[in-house]
Amino acid sequence: MIKQKSFTQEEQQALQHRLAMYQQLATVYPLEYKYLQKQAEVLILLGKDNAAEVLLLQLQHMLRTQGLTQKANEVQHIRQHLNQEKLSHQLYSTPFLHLASSSFLDKIFRSHRRLELEEGDYLVRYGEHETQMYILVKGELAVWSRDANQQKYFEHMMHAGEVIGELAFLDNTPRTADVIACSKATVLTIPSKAALRLFMENPKIEQALRQSATTRKIQMDLKKNAAFAKLPLDLQLLLAKQGHYIHFKPLERIYQQQQNIETIDLICHGSLRLLGEMPDGSSIIINSLKQGDLIGCSAAFPHMEHTYMTDIVSMENTTLIRFPAHCFLQMMAAHPLLHQAVLQHAELEQSSVLQTLAHTNITKST
Fold first, then answer.
1. Is 180 helix (H, G, I), strand (E, B) or coil?
2. Superfamily (CATH) of domain 236-365
């Protein structure tokens, strides 16, 4: 089998000239299989495996037609080896598997199960409870999520080398999206038991996978905020890498009046209430916040108060994405769209509280 290696620019040019010569000879002598074979060898040397595989398939068919079964089987063996090399490269270049040992990858490779998908085929269905992971080897997959009203919307595209289904595996939860093939695609299945052995062998792999999965999940939740959904994907990714999830039980106090604002939080699940304190010590509901709303945007602007003016309490099981306020300050300077979105939330945040408290004081005094 011809191995790939690094070539100088002059050597690459020489190989290109040789390839052109074999292509011309194959046109003049269409029944001479050796010229197809020579083309495939040069293509493999140049690292053009996909083009080489097409030629090898054509060569295999030609040899069988001519009754040269043994040579056809040899070509088939070369094709299989070439596919193995490509698949092995995919495994090593996958974001979390590059930390795995070569012996483990060899085991995964020998026991792998490949799925060939046609356009429109579902790889994953929303709501299903199955936890195996996949690696996309070839083709593209579309991810379709659900909004609060269970309406489907396009999330993003997945490309070769990406991992699918790690969130359901890590958290043992139902699938959170539909994953559909946009064209012919090939995926490699990683069974749950194999993944568990991998994590036991190297805990850093689980940490890397979990961090990657969390970042992607946060990026999906950012899209539930109308303003953030308009931000460029690269900015969404930068924000997602800065955030982390935090969970609260019903009626649990999240912030209290006069507490310093050090983070900006996005509600990705549940609802909150802002509670004001009356002169007699009783509480009054000032405002309600729901999924997609932001809290603490005032911290991003020097001319605004940097403390909470009310108590904030969770009304149900609530999940926030918490971002350090300083990361917003850094990004707002370079991205006017983010600056505008945060400023708008900050002004609403203060005006709503001030107007409600003013109205309440007037009502009490009369």
1. strand
2. Jelly Rolls (2.60.120.10)
HEC string for 15-84: HHHHHHHHHHHHHHCCCCHHHHHHHHHHHHHCCCHHHHHHHHHHHHHHHHHCCCHHHHHHHHHHHHHHHH
State the fold for domain 9-93.
1.25.40
Identity of the amino acid at 278: M
pLDDT in tens, 136-161: 878 899 988 876 677 787 877 888 77
Assigned fold of 100-222? Jelly Rolls (2.60.120)
Comparing C-alpha atoms, which of 161, 160, 168, 169 is closest to residue 198? Answer: 169
Locate CATH 2.60.120.10 in the chain. 100-222, 236-365
Nearest 10 degrees: CA dihedral of 97, 103, 108, 109? Answer: 100
Residue 121: predicted pLDDT: 93
pLDDT of residue 358: 56
Cβ of 240: how many Cβ atoms within 10 Å? 19
pLDDT tens digits, 49-84: 667 777 777 777 777 787 888 877 877 777 766 666
Q: Characterize the bridge pairing of strands 178-181 and 122-124.
A: antiparallel
CA separation for the pair 162, 125 (Å, rounded): 18
CB 228 within 8 A of CB 342: no
